[in-house]
Structure formats: C-alpha cells, structure tokens
Amino acid sequence: MLPGGSTHVVRTYEPAVYVARAQGARKWLVDGRELVDYTMGHGALLYGHAHPAIVEAVREQVGRGTHYGAAHPLEVEWAELICGLVPSADEVRFTASGTEAVLLALRVARVATGRDIVVKLAGHFHGWSDPVSLDLDEAGRQVAAPGVAAATASATRVVPPEIEAVRRALAGRDAAAVILEASGAHYGGVPLQDGLVASIRRACDDTGTLLVLDEVVTGFRVEPGGMQALLGVTPDLTVLGKVMAGGLPAGAVAGRRDLMELLAGPIAHAGTYNANPLSASAGIASLRMAGDGSAQDAASEYAQSLEAGIRAAMDTAGEPGRVWRLASIVHIALDDPGRQAELSNAMREQGVDLLRTSAFCSTAHGDAELEQTLTGFDQALEALRTVAPA
Ligand SMILES: Cc1ncc(COP(=O)(O)O)c(C=O)c1O
Q1: What confidence score (pLDDT) does residue 390 get?
Q2: Are 333 and 322 in contact (CB under 8 A)?
Q3: Is the preceding peptide bond at 235 cis, omega within 30 degrees of 0?
Q4: 241 CB under 6 A from ligand 1?
Q5: What are phi and psi of 237, to 5 degrees?
Q6: Residue 352: which H helix or E strand, with range?
Q7: CA distance 98 to 125
Q8: What is the mean pLDDT of the chain?
Q9: What's the pLDDT at 386?
Q10: In this predicted model, what pLDDT tens digit does every residue of 106-131 receive, in sequence order?
Q11: Protein residue closest via CA to atom 7 of ligand 1
C-alpha cells in the first residue's frame, strides 16, 4: 500500500512500527507496547506530545475553520512572536514545511543578488528539494541524489565545512547564498569548528553573498533565539520549522526587511497551506511557551542527565564510543559500526525510540523516563554483544 511500508525515509523500521497514540514523553504502538519517545516529532515537540496548551489552541481553532483563503489575525500574532524571538527576523513569510522554506529562501537570495549558485556544506540537511539534494562522496566529488536534473545540480556547489573551502567557492562572486546548519550537520551530530559560522559570515560579506541559516531544528529549541543567538552571528535569512509550529505542519523564512520585501514585489510566492490557521494556533501556543527560555533549560537539563548516564553506562560496560549534546539533543556514537547500526533497533526492543542514534529531549521527559532509558541502554548494549565487531 505504501512504498517501503512508510511515508518518510527515516520511518522505515524493520520490523515496522505503527503508533496508535502519544502523550507527554511516551507513545503507544498498535500492539499495545509503550515507548519512551526521543524522536519527538523529528524534533518538533519541545514540550512532549499533546501538550495541553497546544491541544487546547488547536481544539478551539478547528471549530472556527481550518482555511479562510484570506489573511487572518493568527498569522500576524505568529509572525510577531517569531520576530520577537529570532534576532535577525524583521519580517516572516510562512510556508507549509521546512523544505518549502529552504526553496523560498534560495529564491529570495537569487533575486536579491542576481546570482544563481548556492553553496551548501557537505553533510548538512535542508529537506528533500532538488537544489539541496547533493553531497560529497568519499572521494570529495559532488554527487546529486537520483532524479535531480543536471542543470539544477550544476547550480549548487557542495563544499566541506572548512573556511578555506567556503572562501574558494565564493571567490568568483557568483554565489547567491551559503546555506548551512549552524549547529553542524544533523543538529549538532557533526559539530562545526569553533568560529566557523562567524568566518563564513565574513566570507559572505566580502563577496556580496547572502548567509542563510537553516534553523528548522535548532530554532526555538537550543535557545529562544536559536543558534544565531547562541553564536552571536546574524544571518541575512533564516529558515524555520518544527518547534515554530508546535508539531503541526509549517515552515517559514524570516530575515532582513529589504530582502523579505522582495516577496511583496518581484517574487510571487503562493502555497495553499501557508500560515494555515490550525498550524498558526499550535505555533502561537508553542512560541508563547518558548520565549523565556525555561522550556529550553528544562529540556536541556534532562538531556544533560541523559548524556551523563549514557556515558557512565558506556564506561561501565567498556563499550568504546562517544556521547555528546547540543542543548536538548543528545548524540550517541558507538565506535563499532555494526553495533552503531543496530543501536536504535536494540533500544526500541527495550522500549526506547531514538531518532536514529540521537535523542530529542522535551519538557515532558522526567525521572521515570531517564531511569527507563538508562536501564534500556544497559540492556541494549548487552544485546549488542552478539553483534560481531565490524
Ligand atoms: C535542518 C533541516 N532543514 C530542513 C528540514 C526540512 O523540513 P521539513 O521536513 O519540514 O520539510 C529538516 C527536516 O528535518 C531539517 O532537519
């Protein structure tokens, strides 16, 4: 019925997993099994599943209509919250997803600069659209995903996350934008060298290139103001999604007024679900809770305990590997590639659902979840002993 039995490349589990409902830090499968959830809506859920404030906002809105085919006050309030929190945001344009917001930011950059080329860092993920579905292979050659037209691929330049490589890519002054995850690839899974984002900012300024920060995951999660607040780097445009919409579908481009105003002029941007009222209602509830930093602090504090517990468990078990953290996101890497590949399945067997080998923590995670996760991790490591070292 569904190709590959799922609807998303990272949701293809073997054996297949079907969720019946979710609440707080937990979800329940159709077969009745209970999981401590660290996928947290691919990072969208900073307050856990079905947070009462978000449920109430959506419940109220759904009876008032789900699509007006017109402007509405919620989109204004949502944009005001975003501009109040994201340091570089003067204005906002909503889309239906982060993928769409990336496409729009690149379109704005092309119009603003009159240039075609987009520079992307190797390993960085920006959704599934054609202009960013390229990477470097092990030999350092640029490769496009199957189905990306050669002409499209030729307008993207993929470079390693190093300042010299970025500078070389910008030297011809033909790039409209550099786009990157300011956390490093995979929401901090591959951290960047200290100071790299600030150096890329300078390289952009030197060459008339726009800096686009993709904060779809990090926005409102690592800090109320995202990675740009944490690093003190001001992008020209920011791509947002996930926490911004409290678990409902949406994305946005935010940025400097003169750039954003191009959307009131030469750029005709449509989209049936832009600023959809239901997403707006959930987004407003989410961002109202994101403003004072207490939610981010609580989720990060839990993540810190999780990180320490996992590290202690690896030490006790003599399992070589690393565990590290960006705010409320914990990353686990076992040195043995065979065990690393099996870790997320082994954890699920123990009732803990990671997003690959990362854990998105929320304000709904507490002592019971921590204990269950660490017990599960001990048992998963035990079970993985049967995996022959690669
Ligand atoms: C950094 C980053 N950018 C963009 C996207 C695309 O967002 P969406 O899945 O809403 O299209 C994602 C999705 O996971 C992401 O992690």
Answers
A1: 67
A2: yes
A3: no
A4: yes
A5: -135, 145
A6: strand 352-353
A7: 11
A8: 97
A9: 86
A10: 999 999 999 999 999 999 999 999 99
A11: 98
Q: Residues for the chain: how many in total?
A: 390
CATH of domain 3-51+293-384: 3.90.1150.10
CB atoms within 10 A of CB 333: 15
H/E element, 252:
strand 251-255
Token pair 């092309």 is at which residue?
110
Mutational test site, ligand 1, from 7, 10, 126, max ligand atoms within 8 Å of CB:
126
Query: What is residue 274's three-state secondary structure?
Result: coil
Minimal-distance CA residue to ligand 1 atom 2: 126
Instruction: Give the pLDDT band (50/70/90) at residue 227.
Output: very high
181 C-alpha vs ligand 1 centroid, how far in Å? 10
Residue 77 has pLDDT above 90, yes or no: yes
CA–CA separation, 86 and 225 (whole Å): 5
This prediction has a pTM of: 0.97
d(CA 37, CA 22): 9
Q: Where are the chain's structural domains?
A: 3-51+293-384, 65-290
| Among 52, 53, 21, 56, CA closest to 37 | 21
CA 325 to CA 121: how far, in whole Å?
21
* Inter-CA distances, 177 with 29, 118, 134, 197, 227, Å: 43, 5, 16, 14, 18
Burial 345-358 (b: 16+ CB within 10 A, else e): ebbbebbbbbbebb
CA pair distance 175, 163, nearest whole angstrom:
15
Out of 9-23, 155-169, 274-288, 317-331, least confident range: 9-23
pLDDT in tens, 278-320: 999 999 999 999 999 999 999 999 999 999 999 999 999 999 9
What pLDDT, on the 0 to 100 scale, is given for residue 200? 98
**pLDDT tens-digit profile of 335-384?**
999 999 999 999 999 999 999 999 999 999 999 999 999 999 999 999 99
Angle at CA of residue 96, ends 104 and 61, nearest 5°: 140
- The CATH number given to 65-290 is 3.40.640.10
How much is the pLDDT for 10? Answer: 77
Residue pair 280/251 in contact by the 8 Å Cβ criterion: no
Q: How far is the CA of 371 from the centre of ligand 1 (A)?
A: 31
Is residue 302 within 8 A of residue 365, CB to CB? The reply is: yes
Q: How many CB atoms lie within 10 A of CB 338?
A: 13
